[in-house]
Amino acid sequence: MMLSSLRYSGSETTTAPLDESERILKKYQKFSELIILHQRKNLHKRALDMLLKQAMKPDSALKGHERTVQYLQHLGREHLSLIFEFSTWVLKVNPEDGLKIFTEDLPEVEGLPRERVLAYLQQNGQDLIIPYLEHVVHEWKDKTVHLHNTLVHHYRQRVQALMADYKDSLPEGQEALAAGREPGDLGELHRKLIALLETSTHYLPQAVLVHFPFDAFFEERAILLGRLGRHEQALAIYTYVICDLAKAELYCERNYDRTKDADRDVFLTMFRILVSPPDASMIGVMVAQLPQPEANPSAALTLLRKHANKLDTLKALQLLPLTTPICEIYQFLEKVLQEKTSRKRRGQVMRSLLYSEHLQVEELMMSHQAHKIVITEENMCPVCVRRRRLTTGMCMHHYQNHSN
User: Fold this and answer.
1) 27, 31, 75, 243: which has the fewest Cβ within 10 Å?
2) Which pLDDT score, from 0 to 100, does residue 184 have?
3) What's residue 395's pLDDT?
4) Is residue 102 within 8 Å of residue 80, measured between CB atoms?
């Protein structure tokens, strides 16, 4: 009965003096009701202090942190200092549930200032920064540049630390697995970092690139260089450092854009790198005993045949060695000619259709122009059944003229 009366949402939630109500509720150990009373009176600090005391008592009905988490989730941004003050002990006893104070899908939680929450977690829950930012970026679709940059930085720092332990654990002479294929948390975080760099458009590549070391994170460096439009350097890393032509081709497909000057020749850039490799110093990474890149004409011709419609034909032919047999580029030339013929035919068909439509419009216009309507002062308006009066450039009713 006492609990239901306190929860009643009318204007007369309680008429008893606050101190008297507190005394009675404490006397009978009605702590849940006392917390509700404080909540209704906006005495949130008192309620949270009571929850903290009861949480530490093993025989209390309010034992544990769950009620504190629920209470804090509904306070909202106007009570942010209280949320921070009473979140600290929850984060210490149960970090996973403590994080829910800042990630639960509630309007009050989603409305909390995220950069201030991030700053708080940096002081009180370093291990929770990544899951918090993942929720903000992926679930709430936050586009704040600082948050995306910070998530990239924390992914990199965590991967870098785990990578050092992973390499130390390898037997002598055994090579490390490719990025994202490492075991355990390292592989998972590495995949997340690469995916974020590839898909997010809300971080600043020039701001995060400077924090990546030159002797590691080669695929990440290639992605960031691509975002900066430095396709030649990025493709050189894929081709001669990572040695993965499939990823280099995928990079080209991801960045190719016929409408943009900086991106329309990305396939041609890869073709040029395969035909005439750059100097190792141009690649911009530090790799022990990186050999001077060698031409790969076979891969270049395969790329030529596969993506003929995405390369400038004349420029590509000029890059080929003079000793290249015609039979090696026959399929490429055939595909180019077919594409150009098809494009020409589509243009002719479109021109014929537009000309036909033009003739139809002209015919319709002439048909309308052939009709004329003669209006005299004897004509009656079919709507108001009144005579019209003709003036220079105007036709009006007699009664309108009289009213003027």
Assistant:
1) 27
2) 94
3) 57
4) no
How many other CB atoms sit within 10 Å of the CB of residue 50?
20
Q: What radius of gyration do the chain's Cα atoms show?
A: 37
- Give me the pLDDT at residue 159, please: 97
DSSP three-state, residue 390: strand
Yes or no: say if 293 and 239 are a contact pair by the CB < 8 Å rule.
Answer: yes
Per-residue CA distances from 307 to 270, 273, 396 (Å): 11, 15, 69
- DSSP for residue 290: -
Q: Between the CA of residue 6 and those of 44, 67, 102, what are the distances in Å? A: 16, 17, 28
Render 161-220 in DSSP notation, one character per residue. Answer: HHHHHHHHHSPTTPPPPPTT-SSHHHHHHHHHHHHHHHH--SS-HHHHHTTS-TTS-HHH
* pLDDT at residue number 388: 62
* Contact (CB, 8 A) for 302 and 332: no
pLDDT at 243: 92
Q: Which residue has the tokens 């009366």?
A: 5
- For residue 241, give the DSSP letter: I
On whether the pTM is more than 0.70, the answer is yes
Q: Are 186 and 159 in contact (CB under 8 A)?
A: yes
Instruction: Report pLDDT for 86.
Output: 95
Please identify every stretch of the chain with a pLDDT value under 50, giving residue numbers as ranges: 1-15, 400-404
Q: Which residues of 335-356 are buried (b: 16+ CB within 10 A; e: fewer)?
A: bbeeeeeeeeeeeeeeeeeeee
CA distances from 296 to 141, 243, 313 (A): 43, 12, 19
CA torsion sign for 206, 211, 214, 215 is negative
CA–chain centroid gap for 328, Å, is: 43
Using one digit for the tens of pLDDT, what is the confidence trace for 175-192?
A: 889 999 999 999 999 999
